[in-house]
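Input for the complex:
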Amino acid sequence: MPFGLLIKLALRNLRRQMRRSILTAAAMIIGLALLVFSLALAEGSHQDWIKGGSRMASGHITIQAPDFLRTKKIRHHLDVSQTESVRRMLEDTTLTDIIEAASPRLTILGLANSPANALPVLVLGVDHRIEPFFSQLNEKVVEGRYLEEGDRLQAFVGKTLAERLRLDIGSRFVLTAQDASGEMAGQLMRVVGIFSLGLPSADQGMIHIPITTAQSWLGLEESVTSFDILLESTEAEEVAMATLGALEETDGVDVIGWRESLPELNSAVAMDNFGNYIFHGILFAIITLAIVNTVLMSVLQRVREFGVLRALGLRRREAGMMVFFEGMLLTVLSGGIGITLGIGLTWGLFRNGLDFTALMDTDFSAAGTIISPIIVPQFTAGQIIAAVLSIVTIGALSSIYPAYRATKIDVAESMKFET
Amino acid sequence: MSDKTIAVKTENLWKTYEHDGIEVHAVRDVSLTINSGEFVALAGPSGSGKTTLLNLIGTLTRSTQGKVWIAGRDVTNEPEGVLARLRLQSIGFVFQAYNLLPILTAAENAELSLLLQGMDPAERRQRVLDLFGRIGLNGLEDRKPNKLSGGQQQRVAVARAVVGEPAMVLADEPTANLDSHASDELLDVMEELNRDLGVTFVFATHDPRLMERAHRIVHIVDGAVASDEVKTVQNA
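Predicted:
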C-alpha cells in the first residue's frame, strides 16, 4: 500500500470523527504536557538534592584511598604521591570545564572537648580559598566569620554543636583524634565563626579547620584523605568519572561517585523516581486506553469499509497497518503538541522556580541534603527522549489491538454489517 | 479481452455452513463457466445462494468443496495474500449499497484500486477522468459520496470496479437500491462498458429489468444451478 495513501486515509479518517479525535488528542496533549512538567520538576528537585547533598558532603565525586569510605580512619589517606597525581589530573582541560570546585580535604572523626561537654564531631581540614565555592559555608555564618588566610588555630563550628559545648566566638576547645601513627592526638582550637546550615548532622557535629593545621595535628604533611569534586552539573558525572577513573589504575586510589558516597541520597532519589514511575504509569495507562477506545471504535464503525478495501485487494496486514498508522498518527501528532506545550509552559511559567514556600514554610532536610521550597524545573535530553519514546510506546500499544481486529475482519461477513 | 477466454470457471462447487449442528448448503455442486465479455445474471429469489456464489467466484469466501479458476488460474487453495492481489488485478466489485469510502471524493474512490496498484498519479487520474466522461459523471469528480445521488454513487462504484481493467466485474444486486430511472441509466452504462470495452459482468440479481438486459441468465435455486439460458444478443 503506498505510503501517501496510508497518510491520506489516516488523516481523513481522523478528520471524519473530528470531535472524537480532538477529545482524544486533548487527553494526549494534556497527559504529555503533564508528563513533561512532572519529569522536569522531578529532575529539577533531584538535581537540587544531589547538588545540595554533594555540596554538604563529599561532592559528586570523591577521590580517596581504598577503604577510607568504609573505615574513615586517618591511616587510609592519600599519600603525597597520590595527592600530587590527583592534583595534576584535576588540571586536565576535560575536567576544568566541568568541575565547579575541587576541594582537598582532610576528614577525620574526633572528639570536641570544652569545659562544658565532650561531643563526637566530624572535623574537616579545608582550604579556605576553595571551600566557599564548594560547601559555601561562608554564606551560612550566624556569628563571627569563616576561615581566612593566616588562620591556624581558628575553627568554624556548627551552631548546635557550639551551643552544646557552650562555645562562643573566641572560646577555646580541644579536638582529639587518632593521628596517622595510630596515637591519640589533641589540638587546641579557637572558635572564629559559627554557622547554621539547617542540616542537623552538620549543625550538630561539623567543624571546619585550616587543612594545614589538620595536617600538622595528625602528622600527615602534604597528604589529604580525599579530593572532593563538585561538578557544574550532575550530567557531567559520567565524563568526569571516566577521566578520573584512570587514577584507580595508575595510583591505586578509589574514585567514588555520589551514589556510593551518599547512599541515603541515592536511595531518596531512587524512591522518588519510583513514585514518579507509578504516577507516569497510571498516566500512560489512561492515555493508552483513551487512544485504544478511539481507534477501536473507529475500526468497529468501519467494518464494512474495511471489507470493501479488502475486497478491492487490500491485504490483511495492510488493513492492520492502516489502523496502526491511524493510531500512531493521532498519538504522534497530539503527543508532539503535548511535549512542546509541556516544555513551553514549564519554561515560560516556571523557569525561575516553582515556589512551594506556602506549603513548606522553610527549608528542611532529608537524606543528608537540604530540600529547598523552590524547585526549578530542569529539562534533559534524556527526558525529551523518554517523552518521545513514551509517545511511540503509547501509540504502538494503543494501536496494536485495533489493528489486529482490522486484520480479522471477514470480507463476506462485513458486507452484512450495517453502517 | 478475447470473447473466447474463460473469465471464471467453477467445478462442483459447494459452500456449506453449520448452524446449531445442522448443515446448510448455500451453494450446491455448481459447475459454471463464464467467458470473457459475457453479461451474465445469476438470478434467483432471496436466500437462493446467488450472493454466496458471487462471493466464492470473487474469492471473498472459500468453498467447502470444489474448485474455482479465475482467468485460467486455479485459485481454490491460494493463500489470502495472493487472493487479495488477484482481486486487485483481476476482479472488480459493485455492491448493492455502493460502499464508497465517505472520506474520499468520487474520483478518489474510483481510482482506489489503481492507487493500491501503485499506478502513476497522472495516468490514473486521466484514466478516471476518461471513464467518468464515458459514464456521465463529468464534473462530479471532487464530490464526496454524500453529495451524490444513489445512481451517481453506483456509477462511481462501477467506475471503481472497471478502472483497473479486471478480468470480470462481480455486481451484487447493483440496482436494488435504485429507482427505475437510475437503474436504467446504470444498466445502460454497464451494457455500454460490456459492449464497447468488453468488460465481463456477472450480476447476482432478482431485478427483472436487469435479467431482461442480461445476455445469459443462470437461475439459482436452493444453491444449485436450475437453468442456464443464453439469450440472443441484439446489437444496438
